[in-house]
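Narrative of activities, Objective 1.

The group set out to show that a structural description can be obtained from nothing but a protein's sequence at a throughput compatible with the screening campaign. Below is one input-output pair from the validation batch, recorded exactly as produced.
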Amino acid sequence: MATLKGSVLSSVFGFVCIVLFSNICFAADPTISYEFHISYITASPLGVPQWVIAVNGKFPGPRINATTNNNVLVNVFNKLDENLLITWPGIQLRRDSWQDGVLGTNCPIPPKWNWTYDFQVKDQIGSFFYFPSINFQRAAGGFGSFVINNRPVISIPFAQPDGDIEIFIGDWYIRNHTALRTSLSKTYRLRVHNVGVSTSLNFRIQSHNILLAETEGHYTMQQNYTDFDIHVGQSYSFLLTTDQNASTDYYIVASARFVNESIWQRVTGVAVLHYSNSKGPATGPLPDPPNDVFDKTRSMNQALSVRQNGSASGARPNPQGSFHYGSINITDTYVIRSLPLVTIGGSRRATLNGISFLNPKTPMRLADKHKLKGVYKLDFPNRPLNRPPRRDISVINGTYKGFMEIIFHNNDTIMQSFHINGYSGFVVGMDYGNWTEDSRGRYNKWDAISRATIQVYPEAWTAVLISLDNVGVWNIRSENLDRWYLGQETYLRIINPDENGETEFAQPDNVLFCGDLAYLQKEQKHNSAISISREFLRLPLTLLIAFFVFTICS
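Output recorded for this entry:
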C-alpha cells in the first residue's frame, strides 16, 4: 500500500508559492444530490494560518462523484460576504447553458442566498474540477474534484487501479483574493488538476515514471513520462505503479514553468510518496526540472505527443476514434489574438482581438428569452482588427451544427491557457510564429486529443476544431485569473433557429433574475447566518515555499 504524505518546510522569498493539494430528469438515469455550503475557514496551506474559501468546511472541497448520464443536483449556499457563482469547466452541460455558472449566463447568488444547479453529465467521462468563477475567488479556494465514471457496461482501457488519488497543484498566494484583484507494485490513478492563478507547473515523482491515461474526459494513448507540464485549468489522469525499492519514500514535485527564472527556480511545491513498508524518509536532491531554458520546443513537443486513444470507448460504447473530425468541412474560422495588457479609459485591461469584455448586467440567454434588446452584440471579429482597443459586450455568433476552427494566437509574453465552456475541441496543431492558412497542412487530422482547456505558448498559436452541436451561450476565456478578471473573455452563442424544445432546455423554474429583469426576482427567505467580513483577510505579504500537509491512503 502506498500513501501520499506531505511534510512542511518553508522559506521566505517574495510573492507566491507552489502548493500541492491533495433541470430535466430522465427516468432511466439516476440523480445524485449535493449541498455545498461555501464559507471562509482558517487553513494553513503554506504552514501559516490564513482564511480560505471552503466547501462544507473542507479545503479543497468534496469530490462530486458521478457516472455517465447521471443527473446532478448541487444546492449552493453562499455564506460569503459577496456574490458567488460556481462553474464546472469541461462539463458540457448539453442543451443547458443555464447551469454554466458564469456571469454571461447566470445571475450571481447573493450573500445568504442559495441556488440549486440541476444538470445532466450527458455522454461524458473523465477528470474535472469545479471552482467559484467571479471576484477572483478561485485564488482563495472553493475548488474541488468532479469525476465522471464510466458506466458499468463500458470498460476502462486499462486495468482497474488499486486506488484513486486526487492532487491539486497551483500557485498559491498569502494575500487574500480581494487584495490580489486590486494588485503509488500497486497501480494508482492520480487525477492531477492545476487549480492555480496563472502559473504552468511541471509535475514529477522521484524515481518513478507516470503513465498518461486520460485528460478532461478523453482517454489518451498510454505513454510514459518522467515529468509532465500541466497548464492552468488543465486536468490529467496518470497511472502510477509503485514498483520501486521501498528503502525510502519518494518526493512528489510541482515547480513553476515559463516564468522569470531568477525568482521562480526556487519556488517549488513538494509532497511525499510513502510506501507502507518504507524503511526511511525521502532522501537526496529533488528530481530535476526540465533542462530546457534555451529550448522552447521541448514542452510543445510533449503537448503534441498527447494523442487520443481511438479504440477506447468513453461515455458511449462506440470507440472515441469513430468521429472522423478530419474529414469535416470547416464552416467558420476565428483567429483570436491575445496581447499584453493595454490601457483603456485609464485602466489596465486584457483583450481578445482588441476587445476587453464587459459582463452584461443581464445574462445573455435570459435577455433573449425575455426579448430584451441591446444587452450584447453579435459582432466579435473573426480576425484581429487594426483599431484602438475598447471595452464591449461583443459575442461570437456561431452557426448551429457548424464546424468551427478557432486559432488562439498568443502575442503576449506569458504562457496562456484558454477554456471553452460547453464543448471540447480537437487540438489539431500548435507552433511558434504566426498562423497562416498554409498551417492547416500540418494539422493532425487523425488522432488529435479533444479537450476543453488549451495551452498556447508565448508568441505561438494553437488550432482547435469544434463541432457546434450544443445550443446555448458558452464562455470562452483565459484561464489565467488575472487576464480573465481584466476582460480576456468572450462568449460563443449557438442558437437553433428551428428550436422546438428538443435542442435546448427551457429556462429553469428557479432561475435568478438581475439587471434589467431584477423586478421579476422574488425575495428569498434565508436564515440569519452572519456573513464574515474580509477585513481579517488582510495578512502580511510573505512568500513561503510549502509542502502542503495531507495524507491519502489506498
